[in-house]
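Researcher: Please generate the 3D structure of the following complex. Treat every line as part of one assembly.
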Amino acid sequence: MRVLIVEDEKRLALSLARGLRAEGFAVDVAHDGIDGLHKATEGSYDLIVLDIMLPGMNGYRVCSTLRAAGDETPILMLTAKDGEYDEAEGLDTGADDYLTKPFSYVVLLARVRALLRRRTRGGASVLRVGELTVDPGARRVTLDGREVTLTAKEFAVLEYLAVRAGEVVSKAEILEHVWDFAYEGDVNIVEVYVSALRRKLGPDTIVTVRGAGYRMVRPDV
Ligand code: CA
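Model: Done. Output below.
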């Protein structure tokens, strides 16, 4: 899952990015509203963490511009504690949730996960593909009731394939949702992770669709 953080307080932005990366998210950071809007428009994000007081363009304008353009990416707004801006206004512009500074990292992570859950199909917290379960909250995968140990990146690749189970997903799409903007390596890195997942979950769980990408199917157990 790929997250954009738009926050001009650099230390806060970096610590949030570090924390979310440690949880297996791909994270990009923008330090002003204009760059934030540009990245949000150009990239393909699963969630945006958006500060309100930003140089260039404030968070309300970034949010309302995205919504006016039909962009439905979930947005978690960060508001200052001084009450200068109220929560209702944030929600009016199309934000999905808000968090008042200062907040604990644990609370932020819980809100991020709740918003991402809402986005996955049917709002189910645990993704199921046949006998395979992927629990993004607990970062836990089971196959036929047995727990499967995955690295953070393997988990992120599997999670994205599971969200889109049954559909053909291109390597470029996987790369876009699992690796961050700064990654400039070969798109074929995705093959390495798919091979690892096949070893752990069975060779037929992720089908190669020649020239198009991969399709996740019910595992054979
Ligand atoms: Ca700010």
